Amino acid sequence: EVQLVESGGGLVQPGGSLRLSCAASGFTFSRYSMNWVRQAPGKGLEWVSYISSSSRTIYYADSVKGRFTISRDNAKNSLYLQMNSLRDEDTAVYYCARLTVTFQFDYWGQGTLVTVSS
Amino acid sequence: DIQMTQSPSALSASVGDRVTITCQASQDISNYLNWYQQKPGKAPNLLIYDASNLETGVPSRFSGSGSGTDFTFTISSLQPEDIATYYCQQYDNLPYTFGQGTKLEIK
What we know:
The complex is a heterodimer.
Chain A: E1 3-7, E2 10-12, E3 18-25, E4 33-39, E5 45-51, E6 58-60, E7 68-73, E8 78-83, E9 92-99, E10 105-108, E11 112-116
Parallel strand pairs in A: 2-11
Antiparallel strand pairs in A: 1-3, 3-8, 4-5, 4-9, 5-6, 7-8, 9-10, 9-11
Chain B: E1 4-7, E2 10-13, E3 19-25, E4 33-38, E5 45-49, E6 53-54, E7 62-67, E8 70-75, E9 84-90, E10 97-98, E11 102-106
Parallel strand pairs in B: 2-11
Antiparallel strand pairs in B: 1-3, 3-8, 4-5, 4-9, 5-6, 7-8, 9-10, 9-11
């Protein structure tokens, strides 16, 4: 069974940093590109970042470019999101999501809540 | 960025009703469109891919159609368990963008 489990969320002050993790199991992690998608409270879905299976290709939404860094460790079946210079508007539930070769987010984690507030 | 506009934003319907949601892209995206269902407090769940293909295990009362800029998502006979928010999402170009969502309620 495919499982994605996020961790690392919490309360952080504006300007602070946080590192999210996503532990994958039940599939060959190294064969799939992975993404982070977030959802602000009561709002819709916003794609945040993409990383290819080999880490060779990385993309970011303009809203996080220069502040967030996506990475992965295929040996540990883990995906990460390093978030620096956090802003109030980064407050959201952050989901990791697997992307198929035909570009569907077919599996999602349960999400981890990041709250940026003083 | 490609803007995805869903309508309506909210919809109230009765069990057994046919429900239709539309999604319009700001430019031609061919059939590069997915539909997701999100129940309260849960992660989104893929229902339809490539505009009209039903994901494995998804009930056949769900369907999708369209290409280019105009797309439609239909529930042929609304069931109580279909109460959720539905999102379209394009993957023609990065950044991947979602519609604002359609919240479906039972009348």
